[in-house]
């Protein structure tokens, strides 16, 4: 290991020791409030002292003396400011003596500021997204690097990019920015450039780097590389702790165990087991930091859900109205309407009761949301399964017509209204389940997008009702149900992945990460590189293929009229003519 890398490791370890110590001791010192953080600080100092021997001979004694002084301050619970001052002084001395003209920054650079610097100084050649396609790239040989390509960026660290910004890249058009950009600007744009391969997500970039370093640490059985992985993870540890303190603490412990077992010469099998535990919790941490539901996507799903379910309820009511007209009982259509409106009110009350009865402590919310999404998966897939949906619709229509005939024969207004109530309330309960799962798949701030979709969907349903029931307009039912069926299948697929993820978060399902599929992470599709989530989504894909094959295969059976086909919707002004 070269002296620059050693100096960087020692500086980073000393600065992390100061940071951890400050979390465990009050500002004035003299009292420990978190013994684990103080212990972690001591381990960082110990780790740094183990690297001192690899420094140039002229700086070894000075560095070891400074680290020993830090250890003494920690032992006597001195004020955190004293420990931090020693760490910064050591960083400055090593920077000068080792030829490293910069200490590694303690505070993570601003990604937003890095994006601004990139647009001003780099995008002209590298392009707005870093693909090397900026207007200034024309005619350059070699062309600017594609910073969005993981194969190009995979082996680069933030330090590597900083050095290129500081010194330029010989043999290319990449200039030196030593005089053009300040040190803070260079660190910020280096951090931002590293995220371009992950769509601009700094957390995703850091997590990917941590996983690569863990692979190297386990394959080489190296406690030093395991320590490097932890140093990289420190870039997001504060954010992880803000979301889930328990997860952050657990990850710290797992990194420490990996380091200590690698240093003790543990077997490859044991290290791989520890790596598997780490990868599982890193997966949870990345979901906390990176997964953000698209407001536009949630809005569209919310809109289409209400339109689809509400439209089906309208068609069923239209069929019932048409039945009454043909049976010569058009005057009793008002009873059907009352039953339908009562079902709408009952659905709203059911939604309120559902919320009141299923209130759970925060620690169990993930489990409830996971089970809700998986229940929605089953119903959504069944509804979107075109062949079975057709069979079910025929049976449901026949059932309703039988009930209508019995209600007419009895002469009871309540019996007639109850048929409409049953038909609409069934759709309402389905809709409640779907929306509960949709809200669970988003974040706390995404309810607005879902509510906006409901509002617009309600307006669309009013318009559809007027077109169908008042104006007698025919709607292309096949196209409508094909498109909405595809949407429901998409939602079932997403909920399957996210439902398993919630149960993994609750500890009710294991998290077996597939390292070879780490690139397969598409949160908006609910796709995560774990055996459990991919297995369930694979079953859904298999069932879809079976449904399509069954749908396309000639059945030789005459087609029965579907109550949702256009001829059913003739209960408007022209009904009974």
Instruction: For the record, give the distance between the C-alpha atoms at the N and C termini, rounded to a whole number.
Output: 91 Å
Count of extended strands:
0
Mean of all residue-level pLDDT scores:
79
Portion in helices: over 70%
Unreliable spans are 557-577
What would you report as the Rg, rounded to the nearest angstrom? 32 Å
Sheet with the most strands, sense and barrel status? none
Report the structural category: mainly alpha
Beta-strand content estimate: under 5%
Write the element-wise H/E pattern from the N-terminal end onward: HHHHHHHHHHHHHHHHHHHHH
Principal-axes geometry comes out as elongated
Count every helix, treating DSSP H or I runs of 4 or more residues as helices.
21
Brief overview:
With 577 residues, the chain is mainly α. It is 71% helix and 0% strand.
Written description of the protein model:
There is one protein chain. This protein has 21 helices and no strands. Helices cover 71% and strands 0% of the residues. The protein has 577 residues and is mostly helical. The longest helix is centred in the middle third of the chain and has 32 residues, at 295-326. It has helices spanning 3-24, 35-51, 57-75, 80-98, 111-121, 123-126, 150-153, 158-167, 183-195, 202-220, 223-243, 245-263, 268-290, 295-326, 333-357, 362-384, 386-410, 413-441, 447-470, 477-505, 531-552.
């Amino acid at each position: 290991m070269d002296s620059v890398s050693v100096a960087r490791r020692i500086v980073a370890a000393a600065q992390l020791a100061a940071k951890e110590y400050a979390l465990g001791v009050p500002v004035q010192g003299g009292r420990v409030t978190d013994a684990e953080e103080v212990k972690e600080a001591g381990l960082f100092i110990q780790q740094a002292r183990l690297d001192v021997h690899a420094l140039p001979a002229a700086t070894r004694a000075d560095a070891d003396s400074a680290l020993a002084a830090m250890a003494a301050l920690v032992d006597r619970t001195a004020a955190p400011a004293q420990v931090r001052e020693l760490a910064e002084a050591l960083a400055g001395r090593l920077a000068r003596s080792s030829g490293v003209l910069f200490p590694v920054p303690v505070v993570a650079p601003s990604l937003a500021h890095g994006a601004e610097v990139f647009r001003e100084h780099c995008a002209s050649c590298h392009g707005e997204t870093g693909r090397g396609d900026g207007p200034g790239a024309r005619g350059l040989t070699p062309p600017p690097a594609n910073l969005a390509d993981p194969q190009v960026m995979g082996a680069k660290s933030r330090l590597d990019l900083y050095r290129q910004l500081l010194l330029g890249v010989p043999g290319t058009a990449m200039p030196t920015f030593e005089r053009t950009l300040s040190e803070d600007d260079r660190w910020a744009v280096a951090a931002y450039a590293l995220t371009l391969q992950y769509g601009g997500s700094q957390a995703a970039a850091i997590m990917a780097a941590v996983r690569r370093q863990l692979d190297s640490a386990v394959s080489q059985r190296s406690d030093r590389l395991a320590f490097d992985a932890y140093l990289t993870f420190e870039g997001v540890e504060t954010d992880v702790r803000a979301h889930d303190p328990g997860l952050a603490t657990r990850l710290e412990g797992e990194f420490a165990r990996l380091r200590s077992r690698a240093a003790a010469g543990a077997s490859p099998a044991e290290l791989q087991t520890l790596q598997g535990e780490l990868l599982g919790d890193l997966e949870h941490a990345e979901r906390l930091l990176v997964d953000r539901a698209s407001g536009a996507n949630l809005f569209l799903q919310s809109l289409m859900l209400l339109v689809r379910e509400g439209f089906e309820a309208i068609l069923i009511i239209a069929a019932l109205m048409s039945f009454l007209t043909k049976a010569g009982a058009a005057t009793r259509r008002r009873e059907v309407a009352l039953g339908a409106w009562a079902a709408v009110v009952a659905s709203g009350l059911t939604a309120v009761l559902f919320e009141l009865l299923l209130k759970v402590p925060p620690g169990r919310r993930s489990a409830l949301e996971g089970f809700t999404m998986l229940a929605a998966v089953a119903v959504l897939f069944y509804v979107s399964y075109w062949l079975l949906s057709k069979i079910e619709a025929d049976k449901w229509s026949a059932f309703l017509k039988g009930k209508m005939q019995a209600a007419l024969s009895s002469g009871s207004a309540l019996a007639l209204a109850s048929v409409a109530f049953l038909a609409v309330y069934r759709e309402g309960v389905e809709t409640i389940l779907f929306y509960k799962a949709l809200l669970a798949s988003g974040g706390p701030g995404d309810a607005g997008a879902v509510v906006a979709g409901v509002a617009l969907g309600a307006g669309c349903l009013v318009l559809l009702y007027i077109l169908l029931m008042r104006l007698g307009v025919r709607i292309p039912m096949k196209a409508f149900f094909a498109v909405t069926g595809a949407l429901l299948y998409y939602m079932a697929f997403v909920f399957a992945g996210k439902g398993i993820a919630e149960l993994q978060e609750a500890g009710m399902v294991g998290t077996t990460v597939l390292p070879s599929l780490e690139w397969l992470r598409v949160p908006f599709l609910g796709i995560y590189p774990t055996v459990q989530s991919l297995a369930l989504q694979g079953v859904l894909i298999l069932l879809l293929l079976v449904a399509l094959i069954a749908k396309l295969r000639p059945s030789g059976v005459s087609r029965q009229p579907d109550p949702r086909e256009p001829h059913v919707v003739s209960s408007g002004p022209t009904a009974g003519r």
